[in-house]
Amino acid sequence: MADSAHTQAHDIGVRNNPKEDSACHTKSLTPLSSFQHPSQDPEGTETRDSTTMEALPGRLVDAVRLSDPAATPDSAGKVYKSCSTVQEGEAAGDLRANGTSHGQQTKHDGTGGVASSKRTTACPTGYVPTPGPKEQPNTNMNDVAKVDHVEKAQRHDQTHFMAVPIDTMPPNADIPEYDMHLLNLARHADPFRMLGCHLVESQDTDNRMVVVRAFEIYTTHPSASSRGPAVKSSDAYVPLDYELLVRGEGEEFPRVVYDTYSFGMTVPQYNLELFQSGSCWHVDNLMGSHIITVDGVAGVRFAVWAPNCICVSVVGDWNGWDGRAHPMRKRVEFGCWDLFIPGIGPGEKYGYRIHAKNGTDFIKIDPYAQEFEVPPKTASIISGCDDAFKNAEARYQWHDQEWMEKRKKLGETDQLHREPMAIYEVHLPSWMRGQDGRYLSMLVPHLKNMNFTHVEFLPLAHHPFEGSWGYQVTGLYAPYSRLGTPDDFKYLVDTLHQANIGVFIDFVPAHFCKDSWGLVYYDGEPCYEYADPREGEHKLWGTAVFNYRRNEVRSFLLGAAYHWLRRYHIDGLRIDAVSSMLYKNHQKEDGDWLPNEHGGDANLQAISLLQELNWVVHKEFPGVFTMAEESTSWRGVTDKANGLGFDAKWDLGWMNDTLSYLCCPVENRRKCHNKLTFRGLYMAHERWILPLSHDEVVSGKGSLLDKCGYLGTPFEDRIRTLKTLYGFQIGMPGRPLIFMGGEIGQGREWKDNRSVDWHEGEEELRKKLCIWVSDLLGLYRTQLALHAGDDETWNFKWTDCDNNNDCIVAFLRSYEFWFNDILVVCNFSPQAYYRYPVGVPHGGEWQLMLNSDDWKYAGGMCGMGNGSYIHTTQGGRLGWPYCLWLDVPANGCLYLKAPQPSAEEKQRIIHEARLARESREERGEAEANHGTTNKPEVSS
Q1: Which end of the chain is more exposed for a tag (fewer CB within 10 A), N or C?
Q2: For residue 162, what pLDDT is reported?
Q3: What pLDDT sits at residue 747?
Q4: Rg of the Cα trace of the chain?
């Protein structure tokens, strides 16, 4: 009986105890349709309806054509059925137990990689944590997601099983025709109710019967990696651990596979509650695809949020992209879908086939995927670089422990803002290319030679169109696949850290691209975006706006930021387009936007999201720096007590004013001299980044060199002006940022599809410009006055700001002691000035640290060279007690340092300051009197 039965059931069967002489019968079903593999549809715009799709070529067994709306599956086109009885007193083990006692309840270990304790820590900013489940603080670097066990359905007390012939199967063991029809259409909302292992009533009242239903599809799609049965099944109701014997077409011997539907829920409920609360920071370990082991069985767990659709299936290379193969379990109260598929692993391409309420079927990417195909292909990829689900020895081995410890200490002692921060902005795909278009990199030695302390990458999250520079994202959890794998990016960050260079990235939570296979209308209805286009669309940019009102979207965005900081050791986030998040009417006409509940234009949900993001980052990652690209006069962007809580704000006003001034003819600069000095009126309100960024050297705006003059300005004068611009930028309070190519004075504006014109850097004047920038940044890094007091009001004083006729500005930078003072003088006129008087606070010998007209920088040597000393005279100027008479070169810049006392005198000054501080502490005074309020304490 066993041989004949097994011959008939050549496709699939339940693996029985070898001692038993019985087997289960099944019938076969081959694919009636398949959905376009994303890698073969570069446009990714076609939406398919399974009722109009043609059948794939291949073997059909009484198949019902889905193009016939009146057709219903007949008895031949069924989901496979096999049955066994459960009889007490018989020998155990006929359905393989996999070492699990069927009389016990399997207990989940409760980790899942996400902490569940409620967050009760007081918020140090204006953000106040909302009630509900929250992440446990201080779990940032514990990037481990344990999944040792999986929740099972309630176990029954039967412990002995025996396989019986199929003719004893009761009628109610069959699947109803309507449910079978939905399964065939990949539209069944609850596949676990039909597939897998189920108890049924037996004709013999003394016995209870178990039916195992499995659905098999042969992979015949040409893009599939292998040919064979593609579906396993799942134990949703009966806790039997069993295997299936599967013999594919043309195969001589059956293969053992695990049934997808024999596994219970792999995503615990409390984790989904955390996700639904809006504050799930570790959501990268919860959603998406992860390689895990369940009861000794290796496979991949999938989880996705799609609350509005009817059915979601996992489709991929292993099942021919057929939506009937792996329909997912819906967690109704959370709008999530999950499924564990045994037997697959890293490198498989996949997506989610969604059946929407309007009847359409389409394939979407995984929003939480950690790898994607290289554009224009769009499939998600099961990542083999997912360190949270790998053994310690298999993870990427970091070698930046010294850097990370230093960063943490700076954050915990609140000294990060005292550190130098010279930022080099890079669009990595166009940084340096070989002749064949491959991406090359000499980035680390270049940064070291130029004395930059940090590099900021334009967005590296996955995006389909390189021309968007990464600002129109689709995959917020995956590095841009054109540049390599996640481990490749980890290696780059690791290498930079070992060279003592910090890494910032642009993060884009404001909007996303509207490609049909991406996040837009993810489940057939507005999901990640606002439903009303007046809120959910940026018409000017052609993008969709994230719905900050939905908690699940907030978890998605917060989790993405957390993911980059934890998984890739990123040191800072520059949040893009903050103004568009803060204002509901940003770049919108009247009638195209909706006011908030108070009738105003502030987006209250976006504000609270930014506050929480900063709270989370600073709480969980001490020493990480956050920046806002915010172009309006919104107050409190960097206010940690009552504002948004950023560490710094881009000073776009300074950038626009300064470049606008330089573009004026010299005779007109006198009329707009206030563009150079206006910053002094608002500088104390925030903490700043001073950018000369990519935005100003693209889209017809020309290069920085183009802006350093007007029509007819000689090239040599433009180079001199550019040197003075950098001297002005680095001398002013705020962290300087320079876009790639600016250090060599690239002549053309930036093109994202071309490398920087590095050959221009070999020209003499440009080479000397590069040396000037390097020396400037070297001075910036070593002189405390130029960086340590950037955020303090007492750190900056004008010494000459009203000389509009001569186009000269001079200012003083200070820190702690008078002998640290640095004087900066900038001349934006093509005329040199000899014995130009500049007032200073200290008498004696001032050292000329840098002169942009020095021979070293291909200058004409107007005045004294680097390292020279200049004596002050009595009499002063503009209220200052002393005066320096300087030779100021045309379009030139000078840096001078205050007179230095002897070593003994310097130690005496420092010692007296320390005694004074200790005396104040003894008297209980928090700050010094007589003009020293807010000055930093003297360190030992």
Answers
A1: C
A2: 53
A3: 93
A4: 34
Architecture of domain 443-650: Alpha-Beta Barrel (3.20)
Contact 658, 676 (CB under 8 A): yes
Q: pLDDT category, 168, cuts 50, 70, 90?
A: low
1-59: pLDDT as tens digits: 333 333 332 333 343 333 333 333 333 332 322 233 334 343 333 333 333 222 222 22
**Angle at the Cα of 30 (from 24 to 36), degrees rounded to 5?**
140
Give 106: exposed, middle or buried? Use CB within 10 Å, 0-12, 13-18, 19+: middle
Least-confidence region, from 232-246, 646-660, 695-709 = 232-246
Long-range Cβ pairs for the range 793-798 (8 Å, 24+): 793/684, 793/934, 794/931, 794/934, 794/935, 795/733, 796/680, 796/683, 796/732, 796/733, 798/677, 798/680
CA distance 349 to 340: 16
680 vs 686: CA distance, rounded Å: 12
Neighbours of 394 (CB within 10 A): 10
> Which position has the token pair 């060599």?
744
Q: State mean pLDDT over 231-256.
A: 60
Which residue type, as a one-letter code, is found at position 782? Answer: T
pLDDT in tens, 667-677: 889 889 999 99
In tens, the pLDDT along 555-607 reads 999 999 999 999 999 999 999 999 999 999 998 888 899 999 999 999 999 99
Q: Which helix (H) or strand (E) holds 462?
A: strand 461-462
Which residue reads 């959370």 in tokens? Answer: 334
Yes or no: say if 906 and 898 are a contact pair by the CB < 8 Å rule.
no
Question: Binning pLDDT at 50, 70 and 90, where does residue 929 land?
Answer: low
Task: Quote the pLDDT of residue 211.
Answer: 64
CB atoms within 10 A of CB 410: 17
**CATH 3.20.20.80, the chain: domain bounds:** 443-650
Residue 922: per-residue pLDDT: 74
Q: What is the pLDDT of residue 166?
A: 59
Cα distance between residue 692 and residue 685, in whole Å: 21
Cα–Cα distances in Å, from 754 out to 432, 445, 470, 611, 892? 8, 21, 16, 38, 32
Delimit the CATH 2.60.40.1180 region(s) of the chain: 652-897
Reply yes or no on domain 269-393 having CATH 3.40.50.620: no
pLDDT in tens, 335-352: 999 999 999 999 999 999
pTM: 0.80
Q: CATH classification of 652-897, choosing from 2.60.40.1220, 3.30.450.20, 2.40.240.50, 2.60.40.1180?
A: 2.60.40.1180
Question: Which residue reads 């939570």 in tokens?
Answer: 509
List of residues 6+ apart from 6 with CB closer than 8 A: 13, 23
Q: Which residues are part of the catalytic machinery?
A: 576, 629
Half-sphere exposure of 656 (CA within 13 A, CB side): 7
Q: Is the pLDDT of residue 814 over 60?
A: yes
Tokens of 436: 């064949």
The three state secondary structure string of 407-452 is HHHHHHCCCHHHCCCCEEEECHHHCCECCCCCECCCHHHHHHHHCC
Decide the pairing of beta strands 648-650 and 688-692: parallel
Alpha-carbon gap, residue 877 to 883, rounded angstroms: 6
Distances from the Cα of 739 to the Cαs of 44, 444, 493, 764, in angstroms?
A: 33, 15, 19, 21
Contacts of 938 (CB under 8 A, 6+ apart): 816, 910, 913, 914, 917
